[in-house]
Amino acid sequence: MNRLEDLFTTEVELRFNMAINHSVVTIHEIRNEDFLMLIAISWVLYASAMLAAFLNLALVYITYKNRSLHKTYNILLAASAVTGIAHELGFNTTIFLLSKGQILTELLTCFYAQSYAVFGVTFSYTSLLVIAIDRLISVLLPVWHRKLGGFVYIFVLSLIVSGLFSIYMFAFAYIYARNHPKFMVVCMHSAVFIGYYYDYFLLRTYMDFTKNEEKYYTNTATQRFFVTRIGALLINLTSGSDLIILYFCSTDYKIVINREIAHMNYLVGRVCRGKSNSISTTITVNVYITKAG
């Protein structure tokens, strides 16, 4: 049995090395317009990530500021938004490297650069399960839910479900990157998990590739990158959609958001009026001095 597992592991490594090496060779042979497309798509991803980060930051702000949004599920939504921001800020590293002209980065270096984003993305999405558990308890055991206590209950629930799973994924991503430090990838947090996805695919199919599957999974690096980035764009958009969905589906959030928007409009109006008065005063003084002369 151990020999069979060793053979399987060896085959996984060979297949994975073949895919990675193919990507490295191909990506140096693609046309200049493909590089331009890669840069353009990366900037689109960056813009969507920054928009999502802004929306998540706004959700955290209104939750912190308004006591009416201090229930357990409100705090859990805000916690998910905080870790979502960490995930979205990971695209800063990608854009920085691409701006330097560095298309490929060693996997271990990429892991270190994207470590906070790796933890953030796993915590953010597993926290959705925490929110679902919280809502289930509040419906099935409402009295017990009220007696649990706010922040202690939230901390324990988040730590057990999201925290431990995020640490688990973070540790194994590090182990894989350490074992394959020289693999060359476009440095996004998703690249850190590439080995797990590929190994899982091999495990489920028992390495029984058809010719069509072989051709598909060893296609050009450019095509693979573009297809997966479309998926990343959808992830970014959904990551920042909580505030918009809550605005249209929750009366509490809608009231608070409208109040904050009105307050921001008031502040902007005061600033604009202040500048206008300053300009008018300056003009009046200048005219007066001219007449006096």
TrEMBL record:
GO terms for cellular component: membrane. Keywords: Membrane, Transmembrane, Transmembrane helix. One of its GO terms (molecular function) is G protein-coupled receptor activity. Residues 55-177 form the G-protein coupled receptors family 1 profile domain. The keyword Transmembrane helix applies. Its main location: membrane. It comes from the Eukaryota. CDD domains: 7tm_classA_rhodopsin-like. It holds the Pfam family 7TM_GPCR_Srsx. Gene3D superfamilies: Rhodopsin 7-helix transmembrane proteins. PROSITE patterns: G_PROTEIN_RECEP_F1_2. It is found in: Membrane. The chain crosses the membrane at residues 35-63, 75-98, 118-144, 151-177, 183-203. PANTHER family: G-PROTEIN COUPLED RECEPTORS FAMILY 1 PROFILE DOMAIN-CONTAINING PROTEIN-RELATED. This is G-protein coupled receptors family 1 profile domain-containing protein. It comes from Ditylenchus dipsaci.
